[in-house]
Amino acid sequence: EVQLVESGGGLVQPGESLRLSCAASGFTFSSYWMHWVRQAPGKGLVWVSRINTDGSSTTYADSVKGRFTISRDNANNSLYLQMNNLRAEDTAVYYCAREYSSSSTRVFDFWGQGALVTVSS
Amino acid sequence: DIQMTQSPSSLSASVGDRVTIICRASQSISNYLNWYQQKPGKAPKLLIYTTSILQSEVPLRFSGSGSGTGFTLTISSLQPEDFATYYCQQSYSTPRTFGQGTKLEIK
Fold first, then answer.
1. Most CB within 10 Å of its CB: which of A35, B62, B85, B106?
2. Cβ–Cβ contact A111 with B under 8 A
3. What does the alpha-carbon distance between residue B11 and residue B9 come to, in Å, rounded to a whole number?
4. Strand B4-7 and strand A3-7: pairing?
Protein backbone atom coordinates (compact mmCIF):
# COMPACT_ATOMS: atom_id res chain seq x y z
CA GLU A 1 0.00 0.00 0.00
CA VAL A 2 1.35 3.39 -1.00
CA GLN A 3 1.72 5.73 1.97
CA LEU A 4 3.03 9.26 2.32
CA VAL A 5 3.29 10.60 5.85
CA GLU A 6 4.28 14.21 6.52
CA SER A 7 5.79 15.44 9.76
CA GLY A 8 7.55 18.49 11.12
CA GLY A 9 4.78 21.05 11.05
CA GLY A 10 4.15 23.46 13.88
CA LEU A 11 3.92 27.05 15.09
CA VAL A 12 6.86 29.35 14.35
CA GLN A 13 7.46 33.09 14.42
CA PRO A 14 8.03 35.16 11.29
CA GLY A 15 11.62 34.87 10.09
CA GLU A 16 12.14 31.45 11.64
CA SER A 17 12.78 28.13 9.89
CA LEU A 18 11.08 24.77 9.76
CA ARG A 19 11.81 21.49 8.00
CA LEU A 20 9.02 19.26 6.78
CA SER A 21 9.54 15.58 6.10
CA CYS A 22 7.53 13.13 4.05
CA ALA A 23 8.12 9.43 4.67
CA ALA A 24 7.23 7.24 1.70
CA SER A 25 6.44 3.55 1.70
CA GLY A 26 4.79 0.92 -0.46
CA PHE A 27 6.46 1.92 -3.72
CA THR A 28 9.88 2.44 -5.28
CA PHE A 29 10.41 6.00 -4.06
CA SER A 30 13.46 6.64 -6.22
CA SER A 31 11.44 6.14 -9.40
CA TYR A 32 9.04 9.06 -8.91
CA TRP A 33 9.15 12.82 -9.05
CA MET A 34 7.80 14.29 -5.83
CA HIS A 35 6.02 17.56 -5.14
CA TRP A 36 4.95 19.80 -2.29
CA VAL A 37 1.55 21.49 -2.49
CA ARG A 38 0.13 23.85 0.13
CA GLN A 39 -3.31 25.06 1.13
CA ALA A 40 -3.84 28.16 3.23
CA PRO A 41 -6.80 28.04 5.62
CA GLY A 42 -10.04 28.17 3.63
CA LYS A 43 -8.19 28.58 0.34
CA GLY A 44 -7.32 26.46 -2.68
CA LEU A 45 -4.41 24.22 -3.59
CA VAL A 46 -1.15 25.88 -4.57
CA TRP A 47 1.84 24.06 -6.03
CA VAL A 48 5.06 24.82 -4.13
CA SER A 49 7.97 22.76 -5.43
CA ARG A 50 9.05 19.60 -7.22
CA ILE A 51 12.12 17.40 -7.36
CA ASN A 52 13.14 14.83 -9.93
CA THR A 53 13.98 11.22 -9.19
CA ASP A 54 17.63 11.62 -8.21
CA GLY A 55 17.37 15.10 -6.74
CA SER A 56 19.45 16.75 -9.43
CA SER A 57 16.66 19.04 -10.63
CA THR A 58 14.32 21.18 -8.57
CA THR A 59 11.74 23.87 -9.30
CA TYR A 60 9.96 26.34 -7.04
CA ALA A 61 6.97 28.64 -7.06
CA ASP A 62 8.02 32.28 -7.26
CA SER A 63 6.48 32.90 -3.83
CA VAL A 64 8.99 30.59 -2.11
CA LYS A 65 12.02 30.78 -4.40
CA GLY A 66 15.17 31.57 -2.45
CA ARG A 67 13.55 30.70 0.89
CA PHE A 68 12.47 27.06 0.50
CA THR A 69 14.61 24.08 -0.50
CA ILE A 70 13.25 20.72 -1.58
CA SER A 71 15.42 17.64 -1.23
CA ARG A 72 15.15 13.88 -1.03
CA ASP A 73 16.95 10.88 0.45
CA ASN A 74 16.24 7.90 -1.75
CA ALA A 75 18.10 5.54 0.56
CA ASN A 76 15.65 6.38 3.33
CA ASN A 77 12.56 6.95 1.15
CA SER A 78 12.14 10.50 2.38
CA LEU A 79 11.25 13.88 0.93
CA TYR A 80 12.03 17.15 2.65
CA LEU A 81 11.08 20.81 2.48
CA GLN A 82 13.39 23.21 4.28
CA MET A 83 11.54 26.46 4.85
CA ASN A 84 13.57 29.51 5.88
CA ASN A 85 12.59 33.11 6.59
CA LEU A 86 8.97 32.10 7.04
CA ARG A 87 6.23 34.67 6.57
CA ALA A 88 2.65 34.84 7.78
CA GLU A 89 1.48 34.10 4.25
CA ASP A 90 3.27 30.74 4.38
CA THR A 91 0.71 29.54 6.92
CA ALA A 92 -0.90 26.49 5.34
CA VAL A 93 -1.31 22.77 5.33
CA TYR A 94 1.57 21.33 3.33
CA TYR A 95 1.02 18.14 1.35
CA CYS A 96 3.61 15.93 -0.28
CA ALA A 97 2.43 14.22 -3.44
CA ARG A 98 3.77 11.54 -5.74
CA GLU A 99 3.67 12.23 -9.46
CA TYR A 100 2.95 9.27 -11.70
CA SER A 101 4.32 9.85 -15.17
CA SER A 102 4.08 7.99 -18.46
CA SER A 103 4.31 8.92 -22.12
CA SER A 104 0.89 10.58 -22.03
CA THR A 105 0.14 11.10 -18.35
CA ARG A 106 1.45 13.16 -15.47
CA VAL A 107 -0.66 13.14 -12.32
CA PHE A 108 -0.44 13.41 -8.54
CA ASP A 109 -1.82 9.98 -7.76
CA PHE A 110 -1.03 9.77 -4.06
CA TRP A 111 -1.01 12.49 -1.41
CA GLY A 112 0.04 12.61 2.21
CA GLN A 113 -2.36 13.64 4.96
CA GLY A 114 -0.78 17.07 5.29
CA ALA A 115 1.26 18.96 7.87
CA LEU A 116 0.06 22.28 9.29
CA VAL A 117 2.54 25.13 9.39
CA THR A 118 1.49 28.25 11.27
CA VAL A 119 3.61 31.38 11.10
CA SER A 120 2.58 33.89 13.71
CA SER A 121 4.07 36.13 16.35
CA ASP B 1 2.92 30.05 -15.97
CA ILE B 2 -0.33 28.49 -17.17
CA GLN B 3 -3.40 29.86 -15.39
CA MET B 4 -6.33 27.56 -14.68
CA THR B 5 -9.81 29.01 -14.21
CA GLN B 6 -12.76 27.01 -12.93
CA SER B 7 -16.42 27.88 -13.11
CA PRO B 8 -18.53 28.14 -11.19
CA SER B 9 -16.66 28.79 -7.93
CA SER B 10 -19.58 27.30 -6.03
CA LEU B 11 -22.60 25.29 -6.98
CA SER B 12 -25.72 24.21 -5.11
CA ALA B 13 -27.36 21.02 -6.30
CA SER B 14 -29.58 18.20 -5.11
CA VAL B 15 -29.02 14.48 -4.86
CA GLY B 16 -29.72 12.98 -8.28
CA ASP B 17 -28.85 16.14 -10.21
CA ARG B 18 -26.45 16.20 -13.14
CA VAL B 19 -23.72 18.78 -12.66
CA THR B 20 -20.91 20.06 -14.83
CA ILE B 21 -17.81 21.97 -13.77
CA ILE B 22 -15.76 23.85 -16.35
CA CYS B 23 -12.00 24.35 -16.32
CA ARG B 24 -10.17 26.60 -18.76
CA ALA B 25 -6.43 26.89 -19.33
CA SER B 26 -4.70 30.11 -20.35
CA GLN B 27 -2.94 28.23 -23.14
CA SER B 28 -3.23 24.82 -24.74
CA ILE B 29 -2.37 21.97 -22.40
CA SER B 30 -3.26 19.16 -24.82
CA ASN B 31 -4.98 16.58 -22.61
CA TYR B 32 -2.78 17.06 -19.53
CA LEU B 33 -5.70 17.86 -17.27
CA ASN B 34 -6.48 16.18 -13.96
CA TRP B 35 -9.38 16.47 -11.51
CA TYR B 36 -9.20 16.06 -7.73
CA GLN B 37 -11.89 15.89 -5.06
CA GLN B 38 -11.28 17.27 -1.59
CA LYS B 39 -13.45 16.94 1.48
CA PRO B 40 -13.03 19.15 4.56
CA GLY B 41 -9.96 18.28 6.60
CA LYS B 42 -8.80 15.66 4.11
CA ALA B 43 -6.12 15.45 1.47
CA PRO B 44 -7.13 15.79 -2.18
CA LYS B 45 -8.10 12.56 -3.90
CA LEU B 46 -7.46 11.87 -7.57
CA LEU B 47 -10.65 11.41 -9.57
CA ILE B 48 -9.77 11.72 -13.25
CA TYR B 49 -6.46 12.05 -15.06
CA THR B 50 -5.39 12.84 -18.60
CA THR B 51 -8.75 14.54 -19.17
CA SER B 52 -10.99 11.49 -19.13
CA ILE B 53 -9.42 8.45 -17.43
CA LEU B 54 -11.14 7.46 -14.20
CA GLN B 55 -8.86 6.60 -11.32
CA SER B 56 -9.35 3.11 -9.93
CA GLU B 57 -12.50 2.72 -7.83
CA VAL B 58 -13.95 6.09 -8.85
CA PRO B 59 -17.66 5.64 -9.62
CA LEU B 60 -18.75 5.70 -13.25
CA ARG B 61 -21.06 8.65 -12.61
CA PHE B 62 -17.93 10.81 -12.88
CA SER B 63 -16.66 11.68 -16.34
CA GLY B 64 -14.26 14.13 -17.91
CA SER B 65 -13.85 15.58 -21.36
CA GLY B 66 -12.14 18.32 -23.35
CA SER B 67 -8.85 19.17 -24.95
CA GLY B 68 -6.61 22.14 -25.59
CA THR B 69 -7.89 24.87 -23.31
CA GLY B 70 -11.40 23.77 -22.32
CA PHE B 71 -12.34 20.87 -20.07
CA THR B 72 -15.35 19.64 -18.12
CA LEU B 73 -16.02 17.40 -15.15
CA THR B 74 -19.51 15.93 -15.10
CA ILE B 75 -21.26 14.04 -12.34
CA SER B 76 -24.25 12.32 -13.90
CA SER B 77 -26.33 11.74 -10.76
CA LEU B 78 -25.13 13.38 -7.57
CA GLN B 79 -24.80 11.21 -4.51
CA PRO B 80 -24.52 12.48 -0.92
CA GLU B 81 -20.82 11.60 -0.78
CA ASP B 82 -20.07 13.80 -3.82
CA PHE B 83 -20.58 17.07 -1.98
CA ALA B 84 -17.00 18.37 -1.79
CA THR B 85 -14.63 20.79 -3.48
CA TYR B 86 -13.26 19.91 -6.90
CA TYR B 87 -10.00 21.14 -8.40
CA CYS B 88 -8.64 20.88 -11.90
CA GLN B 89 -4.87 20.81 -12.44
CA GLN B 90 -2.72 21.07 -15.53
CA SER B 91 0.31 18.80 -15.78
CA TYR B 92 1.47 20.06 -19.19
CA SER B 93 4.22 22.15 -17.65
CA THR B 94 5.81 23.20 -14.36
CA PRO B 95 4.48 24.80 -12.22
CA ARG B 96 1.65 22.29 -12.04
CA THR B 97 -1.06 24.86 -11.51
CA PHE B 98 -4.51 24.24 -10.02
CA GLY B 99 -7.82 25.90 -10.62
CA GLN B 100 -9.26 27.87 -7.72
CA GLY B 101 -11.73 25.13 -6.88
CA THR B 102 -15.47 24.55 -7.19
CA LYS B 103 -17.37 23.95 -3.97
CA LEU B 104 -20.33 21.67 -4.54
CA GLU B 105 -22.94 22.14 -1.86
CA ILE B 106 -26.27 20.53 -1.05
CA LYS B 107 -29.31 22.55 -2.11
1. A35
2. yes
3. 7
4. unpaired
Distances (CA, A) of A109 to A18, A32, A63, B37: 26, 11, 25, 12
Inter-chain CB proximity A106 and B32 less than 8 Å? yes
Instruction: Collect all residues with Cβ–Cβ distance below 8 Å to A7 and sequence separation of at least 6.
Output: A20, A21, A22, A23, A115
B60 inside 8 A of chain A by CB: no
What are B2's strand-pairing partners? Answer: none
pLDDT single digits (tens) B22-70: 999 999 999 999 999 999 999 999 999 999 999 999 999 999 999 999 9
How many angstroms separate the CA of residue B99 from the nearest CA in chain A? 8
Select from B88, B94, B100, B103 the residue whose CB has the most chain A CBs within 10 Å, as the one to mutate to test that interface: B94
